[in-house]
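Dear V.,

Thank you for sending over the compound details. I've combined the ligand you provided, zinc ion, with the protein sequence from our construct and run the structure prediction for the complex. I'm sharing the raw inputs here so there's no ambiguity about protonation or stereochemistry in the SMILES, which I know was a concern on your side last time.
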Amino acid sequence: MDDRRVVRPLLGFSASVRHHVGVVFPAGLEAAVASLRAPELSPIVDLLAWPSPDRDDSGRPLAVFVADFGGVACLDADNPEGVLIEGRHPLPSTDPMVFAVHLDEAADPSPDHERNSYPLPWMRLSSFFTDPRSPDIAVVHTGKHFFPEQGGHEGEHGSLGVIQSRAPLVLSGAGVRSRGALDHHARLVDVMPTLAWVAGVEPASLADLDGVIRSDLVERGARYVIGLLWDGAHPGSLVERAASGELPGVARLLERGCYLTGGAVAEFPSLTLVNHTSMLTGVGPGRHGVVGNVYWDRESNARVVPNDASTWHRVAQLYRDGVTTLFEAVVSARPDARTASINEMTERGAWASTFALVRSILDSGDAGGSGLSAAAEPDDFLTMMRGFLPDPLESNLVTHSRCAEDMDYAFYSAIDLFGLSSMLELFSGDEGDWPAVSWWSQYTTDAAHHAGGPRSAIATDGLRDCDARLVVLLDHLDSIGALDRSLILLTADHGFESADTSVRGDWAPALAAALEPLGVPWRDEGPGFIYLGVQQ
Ligand SMILES: [Zn+2]
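Below is the predicted structure of the protein with zinc ion bound, written out as structure tokens.
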């Protein structure tokens, strides 16, 4: 028998395929996969993944295929590590603890495919492909791929690979034993159920989430629960710089707590909006619906960009039914509890929220343009936002030279200073007014790691600046007697990996050459989200 006839249905290329919404082009899918698996693209294409057409009642695909130039595997609930279909296994390891020792990672900062690991591939990929907003094919860039013409930076994230998927996880204070490093890992979806449980939500109402309560790391008892997110903060650098005295705030947290050397594994893709949403709802993208920083929505036939200054305040509009934020969970268990979400896009249900403030300013008409209108200019929105932000060059909690060097560093430094003042204000006045649960996201770390990659001088300055602001908060909490009664969790939304600026290239010409003769239109969002049957 022709081998090709055996392999085709195995790979999900069957002729009767229908997508959630549109008709998939099976010949197009097969041609696209073949073109992206070309060995000459292997310096920039690390992996491909696509779902089987068969789905369960929740929309979850019954199988996900993973491939690279050397082989294909099929993953499903019974075989979460994958069954080999062709060649050699495209996932050489799925161990979440690979490169948990920072020295190992620093010695091999952008490992070749054979030395890399891809943790929890079935759980993460099947969640991603559950939502019809997901693409027909996900293309994972190699860590080395440098693509500035399409928005890539010297430091990048988004991959299924372990380094870009690993966020730090530090727990400190009330309810946490001083245990230092624990050779373990968690998932970012564990953050919401763990903090909600500490804040008084009963386990039964958290049982249906993708994440679990990590009662092995913390006990109940804290009066105040404080979550800190340093966007893109590289876990190895964080711990190493704390030990060397460069991050005294993190060092103070570690003195009174523990951290996981394997960190917290981000959902796929290891992108900002996907993981802010995942960690604060306890479910992956297949349930909350925020599948990327940018994606194509087949239902509305439109490009959606959740991760943009002009859209951050309305991310909740994208949530699928059944999503519960940390703040909603706490308030439903404790209706009188105050909750706060500072500079964080996941904020639905919070008593105090930065983006609720943004919405109220927009609604009042004080802003030049309305970000709620599709026609609004993002530039107008940014001008409005900047008008409310402090000048980072007037603060000693910001490395001024970096602001001149990198516009994002300056913008996010201003955002982070605003966040600090919001946190100090929340914990002022009568104790009865202090929030039982608060969350504060900082972003300078992300700008700094994009600019120079992990372990670069600018990345270190980003960590130092966020730490300086953390020290101000810790000192304040200590001075008002709140610190010893607080549980503090510090994490990030993803890791970071350094690109190799000599590894350039674009898979678009190969895709075009494969799909145009078949008359199959396609779009590539991200880049890496390939939608078939959609015009560019
Ligand atoms: Zn991020």
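A first observation: The first helix runs from residue 3 to 10.

Warm regards,
I. M.
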